[in-house]
Amino acid sequence: MTSHQSTQTMKPATAAKKLGVYLEATPAEFQEGVVSRTELNELQANPPAWLQELRKNGPHPRPVVAQRLGISIAGLARGGITDPLTTEQIEALRQELPEWLQKERATQADVRKETVRIKERDAERAARRDQDA
Known about the structure:
Layout: E1 9-10, H1 12-19, H2 28-32, E2 35-36, H3 37-45, H4 49-57, H5 62-69, H6 73-78, H7 87-96, H8 99-132
Antiparallel strand pairs: 1-2
């Protein structure tokens, strides 16, 4: 018996998420088809002009907007940002630095500090356990 490997495919929404682009801004042929793992790898390795343009100027999906602003996706929602934003809009927010964005950045910084503290505490506990054993 010979085993033959089937081609792994994904929905356009999944591929867009993996590429970090807003699905509705992609070309129609991308939105209407399926994307194989090989095609996705090729898009990542050699992005076509449309993908380069989307990554550079947007509109960007919420995870990308949140990352570029240095806040969480929940922080975006708390700030009233529910739609995709262009690079220009993101830059305008960064320049304007509204109060909600300052607050969310501070919250995100606190979360990062707490994550580091917990990681260090757990490493310390593990080291003590290893010593005692």
